[in-house]
Amino acid sequence: MTLFQKLSIFLVNCNYYKLFKKLSMKIIKIPKGSDVKLQVNISSEASVGSNVSLDDVIIKRSTAYNFTKELGKIEDLDGKTVSGSSNFFVNIGDIDLIKTNTIVEYRFKFNEEEKKLTCEKTKLNGRMFVAFFIGKIEML
Predict the structure, then answer these.
(1) Distance of CA 32 to the CA centre of its chain
(2) Mind listing the pLDDT tens digit for each residue in 40-93?
(3) Residues facing residue 82 across a β-bridge
(4) Which three-class secondary structure state does DSSP give residue 8?
(5) Is 93 helix (H, G, I), strand (E, B) or coil?
(6) Strand partners for 30
(7) Alpha-carbon distance 32 to 100, whole Å?
(8) I want to staple 107 with a disulfide (CB 3.0 to 4.6 A). Which of 29, 39, 70, 96 is the partner?
(9) Beta strands 66-73 and 120-123: pairing type?
(10) Across all residues in the chain, what is the average pLDDT?
(11) Percent of the chain having pLDDT more than 90?
């Protein structure tokens, strides 16, 4: 079992996702007729595993620090909940310093425009922390 799989199982078992869902809902407004993609950019000294979900169904898993996922047409995405979580494991070093210096950006790209979201970071224990966002996609 990979580190990414272990972290994902841990978060599901601890019900952190439901807590995050209540804390940080954002509205992402995108013009009609747009093709939408999500670009994830991560800068961290920790090992990382990430999930992107639409309406609680995982559509992308990655252990890369930077990746892009085509989400589709806004007409198909309107009203859907989108979420992203990146799970970090610190082998060596000060977790608090590494968490503070970690940057995670989610960029929704469409029609040569973008909406950038930063995310919340939460320390889970002495070796793990998570960065997350959750939002609702709305068509303009």
Answers:
(1) 24
(2) 999 999 999 999 999 889 999 999 999 999 999 999 999 999 988 899 999 999
(3) 54, 135
(4) helix
(5) coil
(6) 139
(7) 37
(8) 39
(9) unpaired
(10) 85
(11) 61
